[in-house]
Design brief:
By secondary structure, chain A is of the alpha+beta class. Chain A has helices spanning about 55-60, 65-70, 75-90, and strands at about 1-5, 15-20, 40-45, 45-55, 95-100, 105-110, 120, 125-130. The chains are: A alpha+beta (about 130), B alpha+beta (about 170).
């Protein structure tokens, strides 16, 4: 799965997610990616999220919208993403990853699998990583 | 407002990738983020930046989307995509689409050209044809690596640990 979140100069946020799904999936299996609130969500009043990971688990907890609910309650993007991923892991034993940008332009990349390639550019500064701690 | 773009190339695995693949993955996400940022810096909208970034990743065979998508139980590619604009909550999505290079572009067309939010399988294919989206040979989406992955999955089946399967 791949995804992106962004904020433009007018303060608008957006997300996009695209995937081939899971290896050896049944014909007709659809995961979280094309489902609003699971594969991602974007609302100028809060921020934008794109999800990746175990699709069936992500759908059960509405991972992207759950993350934004936490932000509506006052959490930072990092806290919200960590809490949402932790909820998915403890509640349905699912793992995955999130990228988030808030309406203020704060961003984070979090994952509960071993690795997740990510990259971010904010006001011209590029950062990227893959493994834990990067 | 600050200009911001963040991209991911998929969460997965329970161990490090081989070093040469790690470098390809880092390069891929970096290229995608810079593409999206160029769009923003040129005055582009967030919705166009995320599409531009995802197209770069769909075109990169290292990532599980577009060219490089994993294979289903019949050895075929079935792809899903979604895009959403936080300005007015408009969104478009497609699922189980086949033989197109960039499902995210088709999802964007669903958002802009229809009164629906999700088109699937045959309906999505008919819509793609109506929109003039070119159909490409399935082989262009299939990589040698994913043929091996499917073979391995079929051989090992349920013996694979949960951490190595079911991750999109």
């Amino acid at each position: 799965t791949v995804g992106a979140v962004a904020m433009d100069g007018q303060g608008n946020v957006a997300f996009a997610t695209s995937t081939g799904g899971i290896v050896n999936k049944m014909i007709g299996r659809v995961g979280d990616s094309p489902c609003i609130g699971s594969g991602g969500y974007a609302d100028n009043h809060i921020g934008a999220v794109s999800s990746t990971g175990h699709g069936e688990s992500i759908m059960k907890v509405n991972l992207a919208r759950l993350t934004l609910f936490h932000m509506e309650q006052g959490m930072s993007p990092e806290e919200a993403a960590s809490n949402a991923l932790n909820y998915m892991k403890t509640r349905v034993q699912g793992t995955g990853g999130l990228i988030v940008v808030s309406k203020e332009g704060e961003w984070t990349a979090k994952w509960s699998t071993y690795s997740m390639p990510w990259a971010a550019v904010k006001d011209g500064q590029l950062q990227y990583g893959l493994n834990p701690g990067e | 407002m600050p200009l911001v773009i963040v991209v991911h190339g998929g969460a997965g695995g329970n161990a490090p990738h081989p070093e040469d693949r790690q470098e390809k993955l880092r390069q891929g996400v970096t290229k995608a983020a810079l593409k999206g940022y160029d769009i923003l810096r040129g005055g582009g909208r967030a919705i166009d930046a995320v599409e531009g970034a995802v197209v770069v990743l769909e075109d990169d065979p290292e990532f599980n989307a577009g060219c490089g998508s994993v294979l289903n139980e019949q050895g075929k590619v079935e792809m899903d995509a979604i895009i959403m604009d936080g300005k007015d909550l408009s969104s478009g999505a497609v699922s189980a689409v086949k033989r197109i290079a960039n499902p995210i572009k088709l999802a964007h067309l669903v958002m802009e050209k229809t009164r629906h939010t999700l088109l699937t399988d045959q309906g999505a294919a008919l819509f793609a044809k109506a929109m003039g989206v070119p159909e490409i040979p399935e082989e262009q989406l299939v990589t040698e690596q994913n043929l091996k992955r499917l073979e391995k999955a079929k051989l090992k089946g349920d013996q694979l640990p949960a951490s190595e399967k079911d991750l999109g």
